[in-house]
Amino acid sequence: MMECRLHCKSENEKTCGSNAKQMPRVIVVATDGSPGGNRAVDTAARLAKATASDVVVLTVGGNISGAELRRLAGIEGDVSEVLESRAKQILDRARKRLRRRGVTAAKLQSAWGDPAQVIIDTVRREKADILVIGRRGRGRLAGLLLGSVSQKLTSLAPCNVMVVP
Predict the structure, then answer these.
(1) 3-class DSSP state of 123
(2) What is the architecture of the domain spanning 24-164?
(3) Alpha carbon 156 to chain centroid distance?
(4) Cα–Cα dist 26/24, whole Å
């Protein structure tokens, strides 16, 4: 059985467990398509199915250095098309994972910028009750969630955060 850590955003950490009676209405799950991101999607699907919550799947293109952009452009041509294509692939795979677990509708979003800030902005805009994230992503070249992002989000997110190892 997988162990998840729930970081509660309540005045008294002990009350978080008792707030479980208030089921989440909106779950945001951030993924980069890595094994950890996939486990986060699976966990969000189980939670959404158990609570009849809406799911928002987000993938974030992080800050890519100029050298990395030149390398990608040299290898694969138009960088923006490559990045958009990779984001679409990640979201399509996440949608399939959700469907296999019984979640038939989800809002899919991709964004660019600092992953932690983009995720926080999305959580606020979507009025999420819980954020589900993997503990570690793939790294900068893959362009998405970095390990330190999960640490940052547990401190800064305006909602409960579930970190999936």
Answers:
(1) helix
(2) 3-Layer(aba) Sandwich (3.40)
(3) 15
(4) 6
- Cβ contact 118:87 at 8 Å: no
Cα separation, 30 vs 33, whole angstroms: 9
3-state DSSP assignment of residue 158:
coil
Which pTM does this prediction carry?
Answer: 0.78
User: Residue 145: what pLDDT?
Assistant: 43
pLDDT tens-place string over residues 39-90: 999 999 999 999 999 999 999 986 565 666 666 666 656 667 777 888 899 9
Can you read off the two tokens belonging to residue 94?
């996440």
Radius of gyration over alpha carbons of the chain, in Å? 16
- The rounded distance, in Å, linking the Cα atoms of 37 and 70 is 27
